[in-house]
Amino acid sequence: MSDVSIIIPTLNEASCLGRTLRNLSLLDPPAKEIIIVDGGSKDETIAIAEAANVQVITCENRGRSRQMNQGAIAATGDFLCFLHADTLVPDDLVTVIEQTLTNKNIACGGFISLMTGATTTRWAISLHNYLKTYYAPLIFKPHLFVKGLRLLFGDQVMFCRRSDFLEVGGFDVNIPIMEEADLCLKLVQKGRIKQVNRIVQSSDRRVAHWGSLKATAIYLYIGILWGLGVSPEYLKKFYQDIR
């Protein structure tokens, strides 16, 4: 059996969770466990998770960081994989994670996110998100970039060792946005951050709602202001939840 625990924070994700769990059922080898941490869904999210026979935890205080931290505490695997409910992964996900973290110099990894919809692939935005992993830390944290810092985001399916995650304090529950980037800043003290050369498919629902130009502008605006040290509480108002 593998040593990978997959943690999925959810809030009203009935429209996509079933597909994601069917995708995870095809993993070869399978994950050690799949943990759904729900933040109080009012739709069929929990019923879908229970029908798929995965572990379900209800988080009293919603918030993606709190939910992922709670999942990490409950996990029994040596490796943690944080997955969004609208993201599809390759069937050798577990092998990729275990092989990557075999290198003790690597503390955290993530994938290349390809943003897709029912009829559209967002090539330009996907390319920008790929490049952002490198140029954002190079511009704003050059001293850490040379030590191996790369900035990963949630749709890139981040993974790390459970021991390292707990030692650095996990996700900061006081940060409403950019919590993954903040985790990268903490984990780089343990080793390099690596973007592996494999693709995961993420939903384009936010881009479809905003439009490509507005989405690109918002992503750039948030990223630049975050790099300049602007409060995540201020940045959150530009990044509303889309279901």
UniProtKB/TrEMBL annotation:
Residue ranges crossing the lipid bilayer per the database entry: none
Keyword Lipoprotein part of the UniProt annotation: no
InterPro entries: Glyco_trans_2-like, Nucleotide-diphossugar_trans, Trfase_2_rSAM/seldom_assoc
Annotated compartments: Cell membrane
CDD domains found in the cross-reference section: GT_2_like_a
Keywords: Cell membrane, Glycosyltransferase, Membrane, Transferase
Pathway(s) it belongs to: Carotenoid biosynthesis; staphyloxanthin biosynthesis; staphyloxanthin from farnesyl diphosphate: step 4/5
One Pfam family hit: Glycos_transf_2
Ranges where the Glycosyltransferase 2-like domain occurs: 5-151
Keyword Repeat recorded: no
Family, similarity comment: Belongs to the glycosyltransferase 2 family. CrtQ subfamily.
Biological function: Catalyzes the glycosylation of 4,4'-diaponeurosporenoate, i.e. the esterification of glucose at the C1'' position with the carboxyl group of 4,4'-diaponeurosporenic acid, to form glycosyl-4,4'-diaponeurosporenoate. This is a step in the biosynthesis of staphyloxanthin, an orange pigment present in most staphylococci strains.
UniProt-recorded name of the protein: 4,4'-diaponeurosporenoate glycosyltransferase
Organism: Floridaenema aerugineum BLCC-F46
